[in-house]
Amino acid sequence: MPDQKHILDAIGNTPLVELRRIVPKGSGRVFAKLESANPTGSMKDRLARTLIERAAAAGFLPPGGTVVEYTAGTTGISLAFVARALGYKTHFAFSDAFSDEKRRTMRAYGAEITDVPSDNKKITKELIQAMIAKAGEISRRPGHWWADQLKNEDGAAGYFGLGEEVWRQTDGKIDALVHTVSTAHSIHGMSRALKREKRDLLVFAVEPEESAVLSGKPPGSHKIEGIGLGFLPPLWKPDEVSEVLTVSTDEAKAMARRLAREEAIFAGTSTGANIVAALRVAERLGAGATVVTLIVDSGLRYLSTDVFGEP
Asked: In the chain, N or C terminus with fewer CB closer than 10 Å?
């Protein structure tokens, strides 16, 4: 029998697929990294493994200890998965603003959840800050370690491999990277790895139109889960991106539906925002250009929301 690999070895090396039907003629080619092929169906598996393994190696997370985090669900699921695989427990600050599938999946991995109620399921600056405060409170218990993704300097390193994979899979033929911003770890980690190979790479950050704080506008409420904190992420580096683009919640939801029906790619609303922005960039750059973005997670996490209801 061949050597048996650990479940965590299944993270990464995800497919890169070309969008065939929704890219207008005359535009550049658009490729999407299928991060829904990771074990939990999300790119955040990469982040979670890096954060937990480094915390354990540094002695911050004791054997059998508890990983604490505030989460919109996706990072929580990945942290719960990695923690369970390595023998740790998890406790998350979560909210009813996010899909019930995420709550159930975290619990399936054995996570304890403390709820922070939202204002009519709106994602706002106040909600995110309340979740952060609750996670900080929980983390003060003995044997608990707070991942604190927004301020954790190890976060970007979790995505270096993602950038390296994109470089190999495109044979170095990439002109622009397009990606949504939450903590900013994924866009910075990917772009830093890619810019080691191509210094003039164009990097486009994407945020909700209704809460375009990266663009210098006031915070607002939106319903694109997993992005748009309503304030500047502490580790956000604006000089590392070429431009910030905005996409509305309605545009993101509509594109998530189009992706399933026209490209057979089942994904959530942050992916929808990625694709909307990537198509704009591809049109701007024109034929001959190559644009890469991410399929962030699976649409299975959003079946209880209105994203895939009848239009």
From this structure: N
* E strands in the chain: 16-18, 29-34, 66-70, 89-94, 112-115, 144-146, 176-180, 202-208, 243-247, 290-295
Q: Is the pTM of this model over 0.85?
A: yes
Residue 304: the pLDDT is: 85
Alpha helices in 170-248 (DSSP H): 185-195
As a 3-state breakdown, the chain gives helix, strand, coil percent values, each rounded to 5, of 40, 20, 40
What is the pLDDT confidence band of residue 2, given thresholds at 50, 70 and 90?
A: low
Distance CA 180, CA 102 (A): 19
Which residues are annotated as catalytic? 44, 270
Q: What is the CATH number of domain 7-43+155-302?
A: 3.40.50.1100
